[in-house]
Amino acid sequence: MNRQWILLRTPVGALSTQVFELREAPIPHVGAGQVLIRNLMLSLDPAARAWMKVTSYRGQVMPGDVMHGFTIGQVVNSRSPAYKPGDVVECMGGWQELVLLTPDQLVRRNPNHSLDHLVSVYGITGTTAYHGIFDVGRVRPGEIVLVSAAAGAVGSIAGQLAKIAGCHVIGIAGGPEKCRWVVEELGFDAALDYKAAGFADQLREACPSGLDVFFDNVGGAVLDAALANLRMHARIVCCGSVSRYDREVPPPTSPLLPSVLTTRRARMEGFVVLDYTAQRPVAEEHLERWVTSGELKVVAEINQGLEHVPDALIRLLAGENRGKSAVQIGTLAH
Ligand SMILES: NC(=O)c1ccc[n+]([C@@H]2O[C@H](COP(=O)([O-])OP(=O)(O)OC[C@H]3O[C@@H](n4cnc5c(N)ncnc54)[C@H](OP(=O)(O)O)[C@@H]3O)[C@@H](O)[C@H]2O)c1
């Protein structure tokens, strides 16, 4: 049987485990041109909460659907000449043990990388950080770069990449422990606790001449504070807005928009990593070089067992993670 997490109803307000049910379905029959994949590692993404809303950019997960999610998996059966059993792939495999897809829905992965690295630095997470920093943010040496959710999966890599590019990097994270970790372990120049009283003042003091690039994972009040400190020709990289995903009433849009973009001649640009599929090999080549040289640290918190996926997503939305969160539900067969 194929165990799967089903979304029972569209959640209202903060996510709870009550909206999911673990069910069993028959193992799918492999038709002509199809590939059966065993999911080994499920990526946990805050965006999964946004995918349950009608405003989702990739189509809403509806009640009765298997919950959507990026996965790293291994081909167990194939009726396509493009893939053979044992191949390692990345796909939108969902919260389930087995998934039936077609070759155009699969990205072939290097089986020599660890599953931890495939789901983090060489997966959606690392490439999002890479394209956000270099292609959207277009950072240059000596610039001042601010990164929100800096202790999280994308933010922890984005900040390190900006350091590698020769920038002065300030992180924003929730709580003093995370801030200390971002500086001491990841090598950011400074980190600020957005939950602390006087956060906006601290940000102004941390970048007295302003910001060149803001890599924003969060939106809301954190974005407001950053917008008040833009240098001329600043770039705001809109990677995500996690402050909005798990609540019914979104935080108000900044009163500084749009006028601050005009006065600062700034560029605010959103992107989805899938827009950069053609450039992905170059991104991965660079990321691999920096991981191998030790310049880029990869931190992944791997939960074990399909039954823990909803809990682990809720903990991620509450900020109880450092680096990439994922759930391992299988091991590579050699
Ligand atoms: N554009 C793309 O293609 C793309 C691809 C992947 C991910 N993303 C986006 O990138 C962002 C980060 O994703 P991730 O996978 O790396 O997750 P993550 O940063 O590892 O986890 C989310 C973090 O957000 C912080 N957070 C939660 N609620 C918050 C709030 N109200 N205000 C401020 N911070 C809050 C928490 O850290 P604290 O303890 O610091 O609050 C939590 O650890 C998300 O917005 C996601 O949607 C975009």
Structural class, judged by helices and strands? alpha/beta
Number of helices: 11
Approximate strand percentage: 15-25%
Helix content: 25-40%
> What is the mean predicted local confidence, pLDDT?
97
The run of helices and strands is: EEEHEEEEHHEHEHEHEHEHHEHEHE
Cα-based radius of gyration, to the nearest Å: 20 Å
Count of distinct strands = 15
Low-pLDDT residue intervals, each spanning 5 or more residues = none
The distinct bound ligands, ions and cofactors come out as: NADP nicotinamide-adenine-dinucleotide phosphate
Identify the overall geometry.
globular
Distance between the termini: 22 Å
The biggest sheet, with number of strands, parallel, antiparallel or mixed sense and barrel status, is: 7 strands, mixed
Question: Helix and strand layout, with pairings?
Answer:
Layout: E1 2-7, E2 20-25, E3 35-43, H1 47-50, E4 71-78, E5 88-91, E6 98-101, E7 107-108, H2 115-119, H3 124-136, E8 144-147, H4 153-164, E9 168-173, H5 176-184, E10 190-193, H6 199-206, E11 211-216, H7 220-227, E12 230-238, H8 242-245, H9 259-263, E13 267-270, H10 280-293, E14 300-304, H11 309-317, E15 324-328
Parallel strand pairs: 8-9, 8-11, 9-10, 11-12, 12-13, 14-15
Antiparallel strand pairs: 1-2, 3-4, 3-6, 3-15, 4-5, 5-7
Helix pairs in contact: 3-4, 3-10
The structure holds NADP nicotinamide-adenine-dinucleotide phosphate.
